Amino acid sequence: MVTQDEINAKAKAAVMEFDDEVAEYVCQEAIDAGLDVVSLIQDGLTAGMNEVGVQFEQGTLFLPHLIAASDAMSAGIAVLSPTLEAEGSETENKGTIVIGTIEGDIHSIGKDIVATMLKIAGFRVVDLGRDVAIGAYVDAVKEHKPLIVGSSALMTTTMVLQMQVEEQLREAGVRDSVLTMVGGAPVTQDWADKIGSDIYAENATDAVVKCKAAAE
Ligand code: B12
């Protein structure tokens, strides 16, 4: 019988080897074995993605490798999604959360994972997608009246736009009606404090814990 550590290691390797088929196979194997798919995402697939990111930064891997690794990760997530969402459909509605990747930024994998995990936790999630114009967050807050509006930023250059979400929500007179949440690899609690965002979460599990606390 395969263990959680073994399956996580296999998933990490599949992403690092840019192997969509193995990623899909390993994810199905985890479901069949009844293993923890959240751990598989965080400690397996994401760990592989992070390692690819480090090698990209060091100049040993290049953009096509990033694309190939994210394809493998997405292939794995696609296998896991029905199982994850089936778990989520059984829980009650805890409130609405609007989420999107900030303007100028097309990194969507982490945001998608956060959105999926929030759905599983019982929130109604309005996913605005990626490269979301700041005004679109404001419009979505007016339209959906969410409990929380979250933005994801994966680059230091786009992270600064999270500040504009705060500003434009204030200018539109709706800042006090909603909690703001920020996340993404370069984002920190210090950054959230600096721009006046209500919630910072390091990963999807942390986001679920903090959003549940906010909904109580
Ligand atoms: C995959 C990837 C890509 C893929 C994205 C595919 C996709 N559909 O998302 C592709 C190949 C398209 C890509 C493109 C680029 N990339 Co890129 N990419 C990455 C990489 C390797 C991994 C990101 C990832 O998916 N991680 C896995 C997920 C699960 O983790 P995550 O995103 O961090 O999300 C978790 C948490 O952060 C958190 N979270 C995320 N969002 C949110 C939101 C909220 C509200 C909350 C609470 C929490 C939260 O929870 C998530 C789950 O646990 C990173 C390196 C890295 N280590 O981050 C570089 C990285 C982000 N990319 C980088 C760069 C430079 C680029 C390009 C500019 C490259 C180029 N020359 O064209 C373009 C950008 C184009 C653009 N305009 O956006 C740099 C950014 C540097 C910087 N300025 O800060 C990085 C850091 C690589 C590096 N080390 O240099 N990239």
Features of the shown structure:
single chain; 216 residues; globular; 2 domains; Rossmann fold; binds cobalamin; Methyltransferase, Methionine Synthase (B12-binding Domains), Chain A, domain 1
Find the CATH superfamily of the largest domain.
Cobalamin-binding domain
Structural class per helix/strand content? alpha/beta
Provide the succession of SSEs.
HHHHEHEHEHHEHEH
> Compounds present?
cobalamin
Counted up, domains total 2
Uncertain stretches: none
End-to-end distance, in Å? Answer: 40 Å
Main sheet, how many strands, which sense, barrel?
5 strands, parallel
Number of strands: 5
What is the fold named in CATH at topology level of the largest domain? Rossmann fold
CATH uppermost class of the largest domain: Alpha Beta
Q: What is the CATH-assigned architecture of the largest domain?
A: 3-Layer(aba) Sandwich
Strand content: 5-15%
Number of helices: 10
The spatial strand order of the largest sheet comes to: 2-1-3-4-5
Structure report:
The chain has 216 residues and is an alpha/beta fold. It folds into two domains: 85 residues, Methyltransferase, Methionine Synthase (B12-binding Domains), Chain A, domain 1 (Orthogonal Bundle), CATH 1.10.1240.10; 120 residues, Rossmann fold (3-Layer(aba) Sandwich), CATH 3.40.50. It is 61% helix and 10% strand. It has ten helices and five strands. Strands 2-1-3-4-5 form a five-stranded parallel sheet, with helices on both faces. The protein starts with a helix and ends with a helix. The site of cobalamin has 39 residues, from helix 3, helix 4, helix 5, strand 3 and helix 7.
